[in-house]
Amino acid sequence: MAGRRKTRRAAEEREDLSQPSRWRLQHGGFSEPVRGADPGTGGPVQHRRAVDTLGTMLANGTITPPMHDAGQAFHALFRAAALDPLRPAPLVRLPAGTGETPTERALGARRKVLAALDGLGGLDSAAGSCAWHVVGCECSIREWAARQGWGGRPVGHAQAQGILVAALGVLAAHFRLRAPSGAAQDRQA
Q: Of 8, 79, 101, 137, whose Cβ has the fewest other Cβ atoms within 10 Å?
């Protein structure tokens, strides 16, 4: 029996290291490998780029460029506001009782994020929750739909994608990134 465990473990350890791991693949796709030179050694290497959700939706034509730009703006504000759940460990440990205070930049970004979330109906709304988790925290649509959902109930993947598209449309209007529609151009001419 001990021999079987060793062979099974050895087979798992011989995973192809030139490919992304199974864990990484479940969190989004990758582009085709691009050959290049290693900056340190100059030797040939293959780089794989992680594909982001908004970039994939833009490439598929699911969202418009203003919606993509609005998502990028929301994500940049989210990062500047220091609202993402992962934070680096401090290099210098501070004594207890001296908590970090947010900077003026972070406070301004937090106000803008909250204003955008108010435009989406608040954090408790489906669009607000989706924008927070998918665009802000970079969670996948599928993961948000299955784990977070809305109102404590899981949401189907197609419905979750529709919620994200609607949220990006509202964010584009909030950030005033909408291109004039064809009808508005016709009236101006």
A: 101
Say which DSSP state 20 is in. -
Summarize pLDDT for 20-49 with one digit per residue, the tens.
Answer: 666 666 555 555 666 777 767 777 877 665
Q: Can you tell me which residue has the tokens 């109906």?
A: 121
In 3D, which of 113, 39, 15, 36 has the Cα closest to residue 73?
113
| HSE toward the beta carbon, residue 75, CA cutoff 13 A | 18
- The pairing of beta strand 34-37 with beta strand 44-47: antiparallel
Q: How far apart are CA 112 and CA 74, in angstroms?
A: 9
Amino acid at residue number 101: T
Place of tokens 């440990």: 93
Measured between alpha carbons, how far is 64 from 119 in angstroms, rounded to an integer? 19
2, 12, 15, 62, 79 from 7: Cα distances, Å:
9, 9, 13, 46, 45
Kindly tell me the number of DSSP H helices and DSSP E strands found in the chain: 9, 2
Beta bridge partners of 37: 44
Residue-wise pLDDT tens digits, 129-175: 999 999 998 888 888 888 776 777 788 989 999 999 999 999 999 99
